[in-house]
């Protein structure tokens, strides 16, 4: 029998699991909220999902690797695009999300909110609706 790490299915799902900050484990070690993945009628691997509090840190670390420099060293336009991406990924629905992102980008919370407002304005203009105030929870 093929070991899970050598299984082609595991090789195929590994990039996704890595992207979400999950951990691949043997199906017989699965517990609680682990997700067992089956293929062609057999359990191949289980995925241990990350804690939500670790997810944002994982996403920020991945963005740092992608850009090749600390996020605080990015130019303003790139920081704005990072904030837009993080907004799409739900980073700001997490408790302390704005503070965490601001710290990683080397800017104030106020600046992050300005970037979010700017992104909202750009989307409204693209739809032909002009400026629209941001509605926060």
Q: TL;DR?
A:
The protein is mostly helical and 137 residues long. It has five helices and three strands; from the N terminus they run αβββαααα.
How does the SSE layout of this entry go?
Layout: H1 8-20, E1 23-25, E2 35-39, E3 42-48, H2 52-67, H3 76-88, H4 97-105, H5 109-126
Antiparallel strand pairs: 1-3, 2-3
Written overview of the protein:
With 137 residues, the protein is mainly alpha-helical. Helix content is 50%, strand content 11%. The chain has helices at 8-20, 52-67, 76-88, 97-105, 109-126, and strands at 23-25, 35-39, 42-48. The protein has a three-stranded antiparallel β-sheet, with helices on one face. A hairpin with a 2-residue loop joins strand 2 and strand 3 (42-48). The protein is elongated. The relative contact order is 0.09. The mean pLDDT is 87.
Brief descriptors of the model:
50% helix; mainly alpha
How many whole angstroms does the radius of gyration measure? Answer: 19 Å
The count of β-strands is 3
Unreliably modeled segments = none
Average pLDDT metric: 87
Largest sheet properties: 3 strands, antiparallel
Distance between the termini: 52 Å
Give me the number of helical elements.
5
**Proportion of beta-strand residues:** 5-15%
Record the strand order, biggest sheet: 1-3-2
Give the overall shape, derived from the CA principal axes.
Answer: elongated
Structural class: mainly alpha
What is the H/E order?
A: HEEEHHHH
Percent of residues in helices comes to 40-55%
């Amino acid at each position: 029998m093929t070991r899970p790490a050598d299984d082609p299915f595991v090789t195929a799902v590994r990039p996704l699991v890595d992207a979400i900050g999950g951990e691949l484990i043997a199906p017989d070690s699965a517990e609680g909220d682990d997700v067992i993945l089956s293929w062609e009628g057999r359990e191949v691997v289980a995925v241990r999902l990350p804690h939500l509090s670790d997810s944002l840190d994982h996403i920020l670390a991945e963005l740092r690797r992608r850009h090749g420099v600390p996020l605080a060293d990015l130019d303003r336009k790139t920081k704005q695009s990072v904030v837009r991406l993080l907004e799409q990924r739900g980073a700001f629905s997490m408790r302390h999300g704005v503070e965490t992102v601001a710290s990683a980008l080397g800017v104030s919370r106020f600046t992050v909110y300005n970037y979010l407002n700017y992104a909202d304005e750009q989307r409204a203009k693209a739809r032909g609706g002009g400026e629209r105030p941001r509605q926060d929870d």
